[in-house]
Design brief:
The complex is a heterodimer of chains A (185) and B (201).
Chain A: H1 9-21, H2 24-45, H3 50-67, H4 77-102, H5 123-129, H6 132-143, H7 148-155, H8 159-177
Helix pairs in contact in A: 1-2, 2-3, 2-4, 3-4, 6-8, 7-8
Chain B: H1 10-17, H2 27-39, H3 55-74, E1 89-96, H4 106-125, E2 129-134, E3 138-145, E4 148-155, E5 162-170, H5 174-182, E6 192-197
Antiparallel strand pairs in B: 1-5, 1-6, 2-5, 3-4
Helix pairs in contact in B: 2-4
The chains are: A mainly alpha (185), B alpha+beta (201).
Chain lengths: 185, 201
Amino acid sequence: MESRHVVSESDQVLVKRFVRARDEASFRKLYRRHTPALYGLALRLAGHSEADAQDAIQDTWLRACGKLDRFEWRSSLRTWLMGILINRLRELNRESQRRCEDEISNECSLPTTGRQMGERIDLEQAIARLPAGYRHVLVLHDAEGYTHDEISALLEVSVGTSKSQLHHARRAIREMLQPEFQSNE
Amino acid sequence: MNRDFEELQPHERKAFDELTKENAPPSFLEERIVAALKQSNLIRSPKPSWWPSYPKIAVAVAASLLLLVLGAWAGIKWVSAPRQATTPEFMLVLRTRSGESQTKSPDEVLRTVKEYSNWAGDVRQSGLLVQGEKLKREARIIRAVDGRVAVSEDQASSADGVIAGYFLIQAQDFDGAVKIAKGCPHLKYGGTIEVRQIDRF
């Protein structure tokens, strides 16, 4: 996790130039350097919905560019961007849930942790099938290496909730990845 | 219950470590985001690579430009033949009502930019989009008054609506150009689109 807190001089140079001149070239360099990692995280957190991931990436850069002049480098640029991205994905998730509550739509089916007998899925697919709350904590903790304290701050939940969500997420994942469907009971 | 919350087993840890950490975004996303940032005035268009950084270079470049312009003017009758007449090109001039409020929330801007860029992306994918840009309202109006050139700073305005942007497209004929223009989200927002053919001579 240490590497996430290392300030990149190159990022600082680019950000400084960008803030001063608002130049497109500096932005494109920053975009190309950080977006593949952001997009990878966005896809995973969004359950591999490309449209949601792309919207979240766009909103992240828009928000970041509006606030870069106040960025104080207490974390790396990427960590900061990931924080914005995670927040935006949570908002999108809430909006999606609200739409589903407002509409009677078959398209609003909830993710399912179940699998058909004999169906084999990999870890990536299993993560995508988790409910959003479980998925966010599991991805941040087990795939990205965030601590519960960090997750608590990022997702605005208590540390206890973060631990509880991870507990349920791991149980669901293990169940989905068992060679044969078994009940824990 | 507690067993589930134990640390990941080595094979589970390995599986998480092997997950791809990066994923290349689609190439259109970068352009879409740059367009959105321009729309929000968060970035400026790049200056041409020859743009001078220092006064001396500026003078040199200005002198070169002057020579270039003079040379072009002097040699205009010998210029090579105009662009090959290939597919006709049309300009879609996008106008909005001058009284229309320009204030939009960031989310509205995002949605609008996304719609326009999706439409432009579709036209581009079909190989028919040459270029397009949104225009700012700020304008300089240049007039000849009593034999002198007067320049005034103003907001663009027109009884027919303010020109908000343009797209340059290719189409076989007017009908083809109009068909493309009809799909532009600009119409949905109450704007009008004037279709004009590029007159090459």
